[in-house]
Amino acid sequence: MPSNDVRILAQAAVPTVAVGAVAAVIGAVAAGGEGAIGAVVGTLVVILFMGIGLYVLQRTAKSLPHLFQAMGLMLYGAQILLLFIFVAAFKHTTLFNPRAFALTLVAGTLAWIAAQTRAHMKSKILYVEPDSGASSTGGTPEKTGHSS
Q1: Average of pLDDT values for 67-81?
Q2: Alpha-carbon distance 117 to 91, whole Å?
Q3: Cβ(11)–Cβ(118) below 8 Å
Q4: Angle between the 33-63 and 3-31 helix axes, to the nearest 10 degrees?
Q5: What whole-number distance in Å separates Cα of residue 135 and Cα of residue 48?
Q6: CB of 97 within 8 A of CB of 27?
Q7: Closest Cα to residue 108, out of 30, 34, 49, 33?
Q8: pLDDT value of position 129
Q9: How large is the average pLDDT for residues 92-121?
Q10: In contact, 43 and 24? CB cutoff 8 Å
């Protein structure tokens, strides 16, 4: 991943981890060790799903830019569906507290989306690649097209 993508990933993952840590403390207070484990598992699932989604979206933007918006909508829809499937699959588990797990999934997902939105808004991404030929000649690029 280019450095800009890694920066966006870090700026989205760090707040999500912070939300997960707070959720683990709240889960431990409310439901003991099972609550803390549920919150940690929920945080890991969010980071895994959203991180993979960000990677896939960045690859799509570079290779198929005309499909970027449709791919983004489809990807977020699929991620939300998979998160609901995870909640349903672990609804009656005894490994951890399912309520702490589900609430951490929701809080972590909202934190990730908010942090990723903020990171994208603050990043300075070039929309047009600068022409390397104009800068190597040392002068201004030639004018093309009609003169009037």
Answers
A1: 86
A2: 30
A3: yes
A4: 160
A5: 41
A6: yes
A7: 49
A8: 64
A9: 90
A10: yes
